[in-house]
């Protein structure tokens, strides 16, 4: 990774960290941040399970076992964020009720697309990225970067939360997520080194680090263009009994 890319990585990561931390600290935007994480973590489970089945079919039991744990971890992460939303009397919005998703020329509206992933996977079609088709090196390297960075991002997010009883419970959950992400990055890197060797692994990591930098810049640009509007991702949930929440936290501990 060249010096300019390193500088852009620091700048882009810093900007995203500031935006996310500010959004988490603000009670008005915190639910939307949590909802976004819940959808991202839970949404990755079917993909990882399909990759687990593919690894088994290809005779790579070692990778299959780790993908199975990865999927299980992501499912638990989604539950942690859902629990955090419940504590705020919120839940992820029911997008099935919003079937007026407008199409442009038969394609999803550009506003619904993620500028981050469009830039991160630039040059790859949706078909290329399906679990039955994705090149293992693409999956391993791209996911390694995301998991490694997420392990640090979640620590910053947890530390940005206030110290009230509800937030302290969520903070513990998010810190446990950060630990899991570190473990995921470790097995992904180990798999690359087993298959490709150290030099090729580092080359792939540098390539996807550059892609991540470009994706971060696209995300910041989109955020500024929208005037800092993240979009609504939650709706009112059922009223919460705090005694019930505290009891659940004690059982989890």
Structure description:
InterPro entries: Ferritin-like_SF. This is Ferritin-like domain-containing protein. This protein is mainly alpha-helical and 253 residues long. It is 71% helix and 4% strand. It contains nine helices and four strands. The strands form two sheets. A two-stranded antiparallel ribbon has the order 1-4. The chain has a two-stranded antiparallel sheet with strand order 2-3. Strand 2 and strand 3 form a beta hairpin. It is globular. The N and C termini lie far apart (42 Å). The C terminus is likely disordered.
Question: Can you summarize this structure?
Answer:
The chain contains nine helices and four strands, in the order ααααβββααααβα. With 253 residues, it is mainly alpha-helical. Mean pLDDT is 82; it is low at 98-112 and 237-253.
Give the secondary structure arrangement, pairings included.
Layout: H1 3-25, H2 30-43, H3 45-57, H4 61-87, E1 90-92, E2 103-104, E3 107-108, H5 115-120, H6 136-160, H7 165-196, H8 198-225, E4 234-236, H9 242-252
Antiparallel strand pairs: 1-4, 2-3
């Amino acid at each position: 990774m060249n010096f300019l890319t390193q500088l852009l990585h620091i700048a882009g990561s810093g900007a995203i960290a500031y935006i996310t931390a500010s959004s988490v600290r603000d009670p008005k935007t915190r639910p939307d941040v949590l909802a976004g994480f819940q959808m991202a973590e839970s949404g990755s489970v079917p993909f990882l399970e399909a990759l687990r089945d593919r690894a088994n079919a290809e005779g790579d039991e070692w990778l299959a076992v780790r993908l199975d744990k990865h999927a299980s971890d992501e499912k638990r992460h989604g539950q942690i964020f859902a629990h955090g939303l419940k504590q705020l009397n919120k839940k992820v919005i029911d997008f099935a009720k919003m079937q007026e998703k407008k199409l442009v020329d038969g394609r999803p509206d550009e506003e619904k697309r993620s500028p981050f992933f469009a830039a991160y996977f630039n040059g790859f079609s949706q078909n290329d990225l399906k679990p039955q088709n994705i090149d293992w090196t693409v999956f391993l390297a791209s996911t390694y970067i995301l998991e490694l960075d997420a392990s640090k991002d979640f620590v910053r997010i947890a530390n940005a939360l206030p110290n009230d009883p509800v937030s302290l419970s969520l903070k513990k959950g998010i810190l446990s997520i950060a630990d899991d992400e570190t473990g995921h990055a470790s097995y992904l890197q180990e798999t690359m080194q087993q298959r490709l060797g150290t030099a090729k692994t580092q080359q792939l990591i540098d390539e996807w680090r550059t892609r991540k930098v470009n994706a971060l810049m696209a995300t910041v640009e989109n955020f500024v263009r929208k005037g800092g509007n993240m979009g609504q991702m939650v709706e009112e949930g059922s009223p919460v009994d705090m005694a019930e929440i505290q009891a659940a936290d004690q059982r989890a501990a």
